[in-house]
User: Which sequence fits this backbone?
């Protein structure tokens, strides 16, 4: 049998039918769908038909919502199967998507409807997409808007603060008002005794002249008692005034120096402790208040509790005898109010304490109050994310990690404190006091603009 090229060419020749081009029936390839199984198009996370299949750089394919849930829960940019890190942002495999939709249309439509009805999955997909958008956005545009504005303000204030602190540190202005809280009472001059009496309040004005006429110095001041103050020449006949002066005398006798009367004096007398309390109350208020209860009950905790949760008798008490009431044991109503605020709104306690000092620290108290409000918002956002993502079971582990972090940082601060230069301590203190609100404003703006992208 001879080979006829023309006959073979006819086999490959197109067949023209009614103006259209078609392949000969003998050469048409028939789809073999009977050999295709669902397992070949299944996701290795949910083991179901792929929906919006996403291919990673390692070659593995997953449903896009499965990959989004994995990214949100693990905080890792790696394949759930082989653990190889992916590069860039994973995209949907269009060819594979079209194939699965054609072969398993009913299953894909059913699964898509289930995904759209699940708010948790929809939120994860949105967060995953926003994350990809932020990666693809040019860096020049990422810093525009509110974040750029607050970053610029923060930078400018930082430069001004550094210049001011350098000036004060070099000129010694920070130490010129620290005499009474560091100088022993026995060495006080009559002028310093009058300054101490004046710092007690305006109610002491009628009693300053006898102290000046008698030329009372520190040694004589330590010898005074309630009987001497009642008699001539002092003649403090008001019982509340007399008890207040006696109480302050007992304090300076016990301490040997003047007790701090405001924030700056407390910072000078307790430099390390003030730094610890400032950062502790900002990052971990509950643990810090618990520390004050266990180790600084009468000196700090009781005045703090009475200021934040005062009784009606305390509110109506004259200013000169407030100190006497702050040393009394709180009532059960005060304890109940304090424990509720301690558990639910710890930053409100700090704001109420600062509000009581508005007359002494006008702008500083307002900075602290604003910062407490911002920190309350951030804590509320964190609690909301924890509840909506159904990760309450991880709360004990997070609490333990937080406790370990606070303890380790406190221990490191206690070890390194003697070696930290004073200027650095001043910078850290004023940074946490005045600049933290600006940073927290930026964080709150980010939370409110994109709350779903802040994965825990």
Assistant:
């Amino acid at each position: 049998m001879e080979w006829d090229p023309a006959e073979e060419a006819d086999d490959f020749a197109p067949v023209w039918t009614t103006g259209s081009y078609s392949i000969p029936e003998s050469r048409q390839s028939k789809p073999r769908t009977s050999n295709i199984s669902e397992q070949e198009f299944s996701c290795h996370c949910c083991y179901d038909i792929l929906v919006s299949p996403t291919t990673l750089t390692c070659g593995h394919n997953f449903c896009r919502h499965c990959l989004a849930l994995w990214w949100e829960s693990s905080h890792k940019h790696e394949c759930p199967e082989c653990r190889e890190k992916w590069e860039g942002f994973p995209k949907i495999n269009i060819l594979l998507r079209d194939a699965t939709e054609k072969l398993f249309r009913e299953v894909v439509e059913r699964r898509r409807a289930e995904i759209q009805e699940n708010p948790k999955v929809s939120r994860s997909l949105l967060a995953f997409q926003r994350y990809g958008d932020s990666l693809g956005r040019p860096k020049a545009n990422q810093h525009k808007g509110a974040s750029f504005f607050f970053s610029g303000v923060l930078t400018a204030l930082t430069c001004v603060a550094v210049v001011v602190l350098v000036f004060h540190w070099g000129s010694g202005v920070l130490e010129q008002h620290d005499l009474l809280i560091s100088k022993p009472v026995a060495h006080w001059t009559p002028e310093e005794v009058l300054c101490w009496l004046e710092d007690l309040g305006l109610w002491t004005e009628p009693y300053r002249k006898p102290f000046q006429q008698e030329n009372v110095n520190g040694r004589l001041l330590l010898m005074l008692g309630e009987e001497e103050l009642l008699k001539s020449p002092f003649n403090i006949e008001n019982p509340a005034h007399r008890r207040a002066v006696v109480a302050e005398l007992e304090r300076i006798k016990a301490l040997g120096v003047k007790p701090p009367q405001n924030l700056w004096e407390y910072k000078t007398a307790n430099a390390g402790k003030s730094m610890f309390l400032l950062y502790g109350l900002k990052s971990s208020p509950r643990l810090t208040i618990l520390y004050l209860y266990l180790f600084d009950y009468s000196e700090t905790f009781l005045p703090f509790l009475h200021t934040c949760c005062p009784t009606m008798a305390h509110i109506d008490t004259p200013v000169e005898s407030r100190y006497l009431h702050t040393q009394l044991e709180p009532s059960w109503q005060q304890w109940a109010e304090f424990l509720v605020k301690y558990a639910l709104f710890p930053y409100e306690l700090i704001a109420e304490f600062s509000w009581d000092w508005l007359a002494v620290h006008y702008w500083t108290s307002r900075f602290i109050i604003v910062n407490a409000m911002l920190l309350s918002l951030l804590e509320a956002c964190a609690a909301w994310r924890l509840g909506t993502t159904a990760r309450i079971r991880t709360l004990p582990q997070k609490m333990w990690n937080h406790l370990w972090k606070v303890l380790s940082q406190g221990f490191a601060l206690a070890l390194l404190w003697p070696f930290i230069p004073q200027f650095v301590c001043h910078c850290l203190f004023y940074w946490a006091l005045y600049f933290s609100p600006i940073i927290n404003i930026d964080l709150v703006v980010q939370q409110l603009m994109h709350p779903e992208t802040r994965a825990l």
Summary: Residues 422-449 form the longest helix (28 residues). Residues 263-283+345-453 form one domain. The mean pLDDT is 77. Strands lie at 15-17, 20-22, 53-55, 61-63, 91-92.
